[in-house]
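re: ur question from yesterday

yeah so i grabbed the chain u mentioned. its 193 aa long if i counted rite. heres the sequnce exactly as i have it in my notes:
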Amino acid sequence: MSMEKTSGFTLIETMVAVTILTLSVAGPLYTADRAIVAAQTASAQLTASYLAQEGVEYVRMLRDDDYLNTYYTPGATDVSITAWTAFLTEIAPCAATACMLDPLKSAGVGPTDALIQLTTGTPQTLYDATPLYLLSNGEYTQQSGSGTKQVFTRIVQAAAVSATEEAVTSTVTWPFHDTTYKVTVTDHLTQWQ
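ran it thru and got these structure tokens back, copy pasting raw so excuse formatting
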């Protein structure tokens, strides 16, 4: 019996070819997957940065409003000190515990105002805050049932640095791929001179 030698691929050659083909396709797919995850993380981080900055800017607006209200009050004296005292009194709940911010509500601090004091948990943490909802017009709110629920939570805290300086910290967190990310913005507000 005579065996003729035919040309063709052996099983080992085929397996090597399939392995090379798999690796040449898997590498770019993995790179593309990592690029998509990085883009999603960067997008969420940018949104969180804006939300955290909004928290600080809102408290700055309260300080400015207190100054302007005092300034335009007939017969007001010692405007700077009176306005600063009013501001400190207004944000005191956010110094005792953290506050959530819903800028679509009335200006101020209280259960029906934009800054709502957290009351659950001891101590109050960012995780006690309710998630934000994105409205169709692009604004974020704490009001459930309006808009699309987002992964972001935000708290605002105030802390006295001195008699004439208040540190305001706004923190936004969000979960992504089993990791909790956090963006914190801190600003120091002072009494107007």
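noticed a couple things. Strands lie at 99-101, 106-109, 113-117, 131-134, 140-141, 148-162, 165-176, 179-190. also The mean pLDDT is 85.
anyway ttyl
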